[in-house]
Amino acid sequence: MDTHKIDVHVLVPLPWLEVVPACHTNKERALEACKRANNEMAAVVQSHSTRFLGVALLPTGHLKGPGKEDEEEGASHEKDGMDILMEAYKHAVETCSLDGVALFVGPLSSPLDHPGFEALWKRCEEDGVPVWLHPNRPQFYPDYEAYRGKGGSLHQIWNTLGWVYDTSVAMVHMVMAGVFQRYPNLKVVTHHHGGMIPFFTDRFITQSQNFDDTEGLALLDDMKKFYCDTATFGLAPLNIRQALEFFESGRVLFGTDTPMDMAEPGSFTSTSKGGVLQCGAAQDVMDKIWGQNFWVMMEKRLELKKAHNMEVKGNVDTIDHTREKARVSDSSTS
């Protein structure tokens, strides 16, 4: 961080629960795993309270929807999946004082237009807690049905193409479900420059108007309500330029995907910085990307934390006086 002159890192949790089936498939274990992970995240943040902000892990694999019986054995005596989701949220935000929540999206995850997320959207908007979306398509998920059982995805397609696709699918489902119509002040951060949305929105809107019932939906306006980061898996200033043109300068945040650059540690931070510097943005726009946009997005959350005098305060008081100049990056931690 010091080498790259980064003042604050936002730590996004890895791994997600889906990679640990023993936890993911059992509600009680999923809840306990999230609480333990979030306790650890809070401890890391507290130990470096002027440098880190933490994002929480939540259990989302057991949402059945209102009025539907849980099919798990003995479920009649267990908590509903929505109850577990919100219990984990309250523990993360109220007890651990974390400053965001992470939802992992992909073909094996709960779709974000599921009614079980409604209580989460409501609380996140009320509490000023941003939602970080990160794709989680696994490597074993095949590129073609014909390849099922034959080694999974080939040529890293699950990651290089699958992840930006899955992010885009999640964004579309949220917009088409009217989430931003009901919660216009909800903050949702998409990794990897907003996936495919900045590049294919006109195509999506045209086909939606042709074939979907879009009455009452402001598709383009709602698509622009997402935030995105600058993590591009390499030097890609044109991607950042496109994100700036679509989401506008106030919605683009500096992100690196550190430490997923295992082959060349530090390279993602360098290429993300290079992409911003070479994208043709004016200095005032780059200043927004480096940190100002983040502090504006976090303003309600930080003010509420101070008002409630939360026990795990992190660096709220310090940041409050430096938010216009502090450079922020989001990254992953395990």
Automatic annotation (TrEMBL):
Keywords tagged on the record: Decarboxylase, Hydrolase, Lyase
Any GO molecular function: carboxy-lyase activity
InterPro entries registered for this protein in UniProt: ACMSD, Amidohydro-rel, Metal_Hydrolase
Record GO biological process: secondary metabolic process
Similarity remark: Belongs to the metallo-dependent hydrolases superfamily.
Coiled-coil positions: none
GO CC, alphabetical: cytoplasm
Keyword Repressor: no
Domain Amidohydrolase-related stretches: 27-264
Keyword Lyase included in the entry's annotation: yes
Protein name stated in the entry: Amidohydrolase 2
Superkingdom to which the source organism belongs: Eukaryota
